[in-house]
Prior knowledge:
Oligomer: single chain
Amino acid sequence: MKTDGKPEAVGGDSNLASLPMSNSVNSSSSSSSSSSSINNDVVGSMDCLGCRLTGLAFGLGGGGYIMSSLLQDPPPRGAHKASVIATAGAMLCFGMYRALL
């Protein structure tokens, strides 16, 4: 039990820096080639067609649904109308962004 007021680590040593770290991508190669393969896995990954279509449907469907609130009786006015248009526009832009990029 410590008397300095700090909580004691459960299970022994709390110094995580002393633990050995392993590279799960390729432990037998040099560090420069393994770091480049890690970067290629993270940065160079492309979405599948199904993921792009799902994002497109979500963006266009959500934007259309939000835009349909402009057809209510009585229609929104002022800042409410502006926020509906801005939110629907953002959703539509998100859908197009997902499809194209």
